[in-house]
Amino acid sequence: MVFVVNHGLKMGKGKIAAQVGHGAVQAVMNAGKKKPAILEAWLATGQKKICVKGDDADHLTRLERHAEQLGLLTASIRDAGHTQIPSGSYTVLAIGPCQEAELEPITGLLKLL
């Protein structure tokens, strides 16, 4: 599973952690409903998670479309606006769970967070 964090929002470390947490929960819930066998395999093999930087909301949207075109599960996280950033801001894109090789064409060139 990979989390693409909207680097353009300049979120603090705690805010990023919370948003990635929301992404992880939503991604697991989606997988449980739509691809339970893939979720079980991911749970049984260490639950690998990686965080990378995305440029801005448009970049996250393009990556989300690409992932969906390849048949991968996605979860887009938008903030409620109670703290650091405006309501509705696209903070994190979660992709997966899936095989690492499936993520490479989508996020392989992005820098680690």
What does the model show?
This protein has one domain: 3-Layer(aba) Sandwich (Bit1), CATH 3.40.1490. It is 46% helix and 19% strand. It is built from four helices and four strands; from the N terminus they run βααβαββα. Strands 2-1-4-3 form a four-stranded mixed sheet, with helices on both faces. The chain starts with a strand and ends in a 6-residue tail after the last helix.
Topology of helices and strands:
Elements: E1 2-6, H1 13-34, H2 36-44, E2 50-54, H3 57-69, E3 74-78, E4 90-95, H4 100-107
Parallel strand pairs: 1-2
Antiparallel strand pairs: 1-4, 3-4
SS summary, helix count: 4
Strand portion, in percent? 15-25%
Shape: globular
Alpha-carbon Rg, integer: 13 Å
Weakly predicted, low-confidence segments: none
Give the C-level CATH assignment.
Alpha Beta
Q: Structural class of the helix and strand makeup?
A: alpha+beta
How many independent structural domains? Answer: 1
The helix-strand sequence is EHHEHEEH
Q: Quick check: average pLDDT? A: 97
- Corresponding CATH architecture: 3-Layer(aba) Sandwich
Q: Please, what is the CATH homologous superfamily?
A: Bit1
Sheet with the most strands: spatial strand order:
2-1-4-3
CATH topology: Bit1
What is the subunit arrangement here? Answer: single chain
